[in-house]
Design a protein that fits this description.
Blueprint: H1 2-23, E1 32-33, H2 38-47, E2 55-59, E3 62-63, H3 70-75, E4 80-81, E5 85-86, E6 90-94, E7 96-97, H4 103-119, H5 126-140, H6 145-156, H7 167-181, E8 237-240, H8 279-285, E9 288-291, E10 316-317, E11 322-328, E12 333-345, H9 356-373, E13 376-382, E14 387-388, H10 390-401, E15 411-416, E16 421-428, H11 443-461, E17 464-472, E18 478-484, H12 492-499, H13 509-521, E19 527-534, H14 547-562, E20 566-571, H15 580-584, E21 589-591, H16 598-609
Parallel strand pairs: 2-6, 8-9, 12-18, 16-17, 16-19, 19-20, 20-21
Antiparallel strand pairs: 1-7, 3-4, 5-6, 10-12, 11-12, 13-15, 14-15, 17-18
Helix pairs in contact: 2-4, 4-6, 9-11, 11-16, 13-14
Length: about 600
């Protein structure tokens, strides 16, 4: 009997592999993956004019309503297909491509989709828009015509023969073939009850905006058209699970440990009957929803808000909350008084000396930076001095030749000068800093050590500086922890605050940068440096995730520069090259590839940034 069962399973598996292989429309032997090409495609997308705040992510397969052959119906294949699409946050490309029998063509298809997405804009009509984007891309870069023709020729050989289709389907297929060969030549697409075979060379609408009917390509009301082959757009695949809450069970706690029976409360921390403002956005990002039935007790209940700690143990607020604007890239404007920022001081932080493990490094850094306090600086364009200022003399000569001779000093002289400089260091203390770098250190511990050595260094050189940490919990609670203000001395009290830092919540960078810019802008110094120390990209629980947060941070950096500040970001995120150049500029950030070296690298970066 056991042999019979094993034989049936073996025959079934062999049959499944055979029928699936025969019915598949792909070429697994020539398959290429997105993951190793993701960074290169992101660079190509931005180089071709794509939005800098957008990333390249894998797209999930989408359900299709296609006319399948008998073999495909038996095998149950060709129900889904990986399609490329683009929204306001990411360019979604198939995780694997096996469209063509040649792996080189599949790689070329990845590059074509990235370039087409960079050329694209808001989609109003699937067929006409893709033709227009293709035509504009080929006109802008004529060298791509040969590559595009190779992709089209290879794809047309794989498409169904119009002669084998019904009249309506054949007309639609011929229209699509002509649109591929001559982009822009087809204005109206015939209607068909059955969907056309997918076009991997075109972009599709975002998943949540797909239509409920297949085959309709018209847009009578100037809205997003229905996409051929899309099944029940916006709907999700659901899986129901059984939730079995524990009832009764063995009591393994000694009753003597309970003070009284009345203090034992059956509290369900996870059930929440309030409306989640982010539920709709989260549901749109999920491909599969898991449903369960939870029994909720009717009548009275106890409801606690556990997001923030009680006021008795939370940090001490300094004054009322500060209302700040936030940039909405979708509207192209600042939203006034949109964010509430609370300035806080750490609670119950006892004064502490510098830890023993950092004292040797601190002494070495102090010796190096104390020399800057007495460095002799060259002053240019002086009326007299020990050296000739060749640049000033050259400017004078050119002006005299052109008849515009202004009075200027032509000498250089060395003098002892005081550094006219102020710096504010803004440290990211979000919950991501609780992650481990290795078996011995967490990110928050490296940040603490960096702040301590930075404070020791700047107190030695005599520059004005301030230290702050920040995290956030939606726009109503942006927390800015004051470790050292400009008017405060750096001493054991400050060291105690730094060593008491704990990971917070999320990373709403824009509001923190705006408030730090206001604090730094009030300093009476000629040069003002705003340093941001972070381990990741901007994010929060609400709309701040993705491109929204990147665009707001970028606008806050531009505002700081318009105030005369010099913002600079220092990060340990290895993926920072995908978003920091867009926010801070190509020369506005530094990546520390060995995070454990951050405490020593931070003072050296400061010295390089503040050299005259």
């Amino acid at each position: 009997m056991a042999f019979t069962v094993e034989m049936e399973e073996w025959v079934g598996s062999v049959w499944h592999r055979f029928i699936t292989r025969r019915a598949s429309a792909d070429f697994p032997a020539a398959q290429v993956a997105l993951a190793p090409r993701q960074r290169a495609l992101a660079l190509l997308f931005r180089a071709m004019g794509g939005a800098g705040g957008m990333g390249v992510e894998a797209a999930s397969e989408r359900d299709l309503l296609l006319r399948r052959s008998l073999l495909q119906q038996i095998a149950g294949t060709c129900k889904q297909a990986p399609l490329a699409w683009c929204d306001g946050h990411n360019l979604r490309l198939p995780a694997q491509l096996a469209v063509f029998a040649d792996a080189a063509l599949n790689q070329e298809l990845y590059r074509w989709l990235a370039m087409l997405a960079a050329q694209s804009g808001p989609m109003r009509h699937w067929g006409r828009d893709n033709q227009r984007w293709t035509r504009e891309l080929l006109q802008r870069f004529p060298g791509l015509v040969g590559r595009y023709q190779r992709l089209v020729d290879a794809h047309l050989q794989l498409r169904p023969d119009p002669a084998a289709l019904s009249a309506d389907e054949a007309r639609l297929e011929r229209a699509l073939r002509q649109a591929l060969r001559e982009p822009g030549s087809v204005e109206d697409f015939p209607r068909s009850e059955r969907a056309a075979w997918p076009l991997p060379l075109w972009l599709y609408p975002p998943l949540q905006l797909a239509s409920a009917q297949a085959g309709d390509l018209e847009d009578a009301q100037n809205e997003l058209p229905n996409t051929p082959g899309e099944q029940q757009g916006g709907r999700k695949r659901a899986t129901r699970i059984e939730e079995r809450p524990a009832k009764g069970g063995l009591l393994i706690v000694r009753l003597e440990n309970l003070f009284s029976w009345t203090e034992h409360v059956d509290l369900d921390r996870w059930a929440d009957d309030s409306q989640d403002p982010d539920a709709a956005r989260v549901a749109e990002d999920l491909d599969q929803l898991t449903l369960s039935r939870t029994r909720i007790r009717k009548g009275g209940g106890l409801k606690l808000h556990l997001d923030l700690p009680p006021a008795q143990v939370d940090d001490i607020p300094l004054g009322d909350g500060i209302k700040l604007p936030e940039w909405d890239y979708r509207q192209g404007r600042l939203q006034a008084n949109f964010v509430n920022l609370q300035l806080l001081e750490p609670r119950d932080c006892e004064p502490q000396p510098l830890p023993a493990r950092l004292q040797t490094s601190a002494r070495r850094l102090r010796r190096q930076f104390e020399q800057l306090r007495t460095d002799r600086q060259w002053l240019r364009q002086q009326p007299q001095g020990s050296e000739l200022d060749l640049q000033a003399w050259l400017d004078f000569h050119v002006e005299r030749v052109h008849g515009q001779c202004a009075e200027r000093g032509l000498f250089m002289e060395q003098r002892h000068t005081r550094r006219d400089l102020a710096c504010l260091l803004l440290a990211d203390v979000s919950m991501s800093t609780d992650a481990h770098l290795n078996d011995e250190q967490r990110v928050i511990e490296v940040i603490r050590d960096s702040l301590l050595l930075f404070g020791e260094t700047l107190s030695a050189v005599g520059d004005d500086f301030a230290l702050y940490g920040f995290s956030s919990l939606r726009r109503q609670q942006v927390r800015l922890q004051q470790l050292k203000a400009f008017e405060q001395r750096y001493n054991d009290v400050t060291r105690g605050k730094i060593q008491g830092l704990k990971p917070g919540y999320y990373t709403r960078m824009g509001a923190a940068i705006r408030q730090a810019s206001q604090l730094l802008g009030g300093c009476k110094r000629r040069r003002k440096l705003l340093l941001l120390l972070t381990d990741g990209k901007p994010n929060d629980l609400d709309l701040y995730e993705g491109r929204y947060g990147v665009e707001d941070t970028r606008e806050a950096v531009h505002e700081a520069r318009r105030m005369g500040l010099t913002p600079f970001c220092i990060t340990i995120d290895r993926q920072a090259g995908a978003y920091l150049p867009y926010m801070f500029g190509s020369n506005g950030y530094a990546l520390i590839r060995q995070p454990e070296q951050l405490p020593l690298r931070l003072p050296q970066l400061y010295r390089q940034l503040t050299q005259p």
